[in-house]
Amino acid sequence: MSATEVPLTITTKNVTATFKQNKELSSTVDEVLKAQGISWTVRTALKYTPMSLKVQLYTDDNGVEHLDIDQLLPAGIKSDEPRTFDFQFREKLSVVFGPVIARSKRVTIDEATQINGFLGQGWDEGCVKNGLFYAYARGDPSKPNGLEWESHQTFGFADVQIDEKQTERKYVVRLYFTAPGLEEGVEKRLVYDFVQEGI
Question: Which of 27, 126, 171, 175 has its CA 20 to 30 A from that of 21?
Answer without folding.
Answer: 126
